[in-house]
Amino acid sequence: MSLYIASGAPTPLLIGWQHEWGFPDSLVALAFAAYAFTFLAALLVGGSLSDYLGRKPVILASLLLALVSIVMFMLAASIEWVIAARAVQGVAVGVVTAAYTAALVELARPGTRVGPVIAAAAPVGGLGLGALLGGVAIELWDLDADETLFAAVGVLLLVGVLITLFAPETTTRIPGVFRSLVPQVVVPVEARSFFVRMLPILIAAWATGSLFLGLAPTVVHQLLRLESGLLDGFTAAIHAFGVCIGSLVFGRVAVGTALRGGAAGLVVGVALVVLGVVVQSIALVWIGGAVESLAFGAAFGAIFRGLTPLAPEHQRAGTFAAVYVAAYLALGVPVVVAGQLIAPLGLLPVIIGWTVLIVALAALGLLIQLRRPREAAV
Question: Could you tell me the pTM of the whole model?
Fold first, then answer.
């Protein structure tokens, strides 16, 4: 969890750095997307690494690398430093995520849904908590917010190192570690049909996350006309906490039902968000964010619960890596494209176009899930 908190913490600080250093909105987007793209690269190279080396060594190495990124943030004197630190964060989290997910599943009692549910909830919940802590730090310490925040996050990472050292290993090592470094996405034959059918919902959900976690501070300041670091952090955190709660609350709902409900909730929630932006109502944005994020959590948790029994143990981390490849492409690509379009088109048209695409994808995912039961009945 500490790794994800560290990754969410810079979100509300970006606007302050923008005011201090005077860089354009496109670099705000790039600073967010740098994390997503290096996460993806690390996941492609090291996503299956823990299947060969074991979960603990991979998790421990990632925590130490995240500590390096915290030092880089504390020394940052320009947006280039921030982008570099975000890139290092992405590598650390990209390598660890599949290992962390697999370890949670393996630590849980056989047959229980706790592991997959927590695996879906913790990463996004940690991002939200980090963003909220960043907003609180701005309100309390203003100019010293970044130093105070990153010092606290560094302590959390050290605690994570200690916990990992004493945690049990959950899998046995197997030969072939160097072959595992060849970039590949592992989707076992048994899981491919399910994977393809859930893909539009997965992309829609994480594109919504990109909107909240990548451009929420920019939207709050430029479109809603509100100047508050706490509101920046809280707006991003609503999405992340909703995902976490949705994963936990709907963890016992049947996989198909959760996917259908998640897709429908994304359509409704994202529509409310864009309406709130158009009428300049942050309350409506928050309501829409709560609806879409609960739906995101329900669907994302269902994806892990659906894949877990389909993936053999020594392909499990690689299978979860495939999920995160699609997820982080949906997280990183839209915000970079949006960042480039803001200057020529304006922020509001970009946000409207973005949300229309999300709604279309979620609606497609819902149609696929509604069609599946009828096919099974034939």
Answer: 0.78
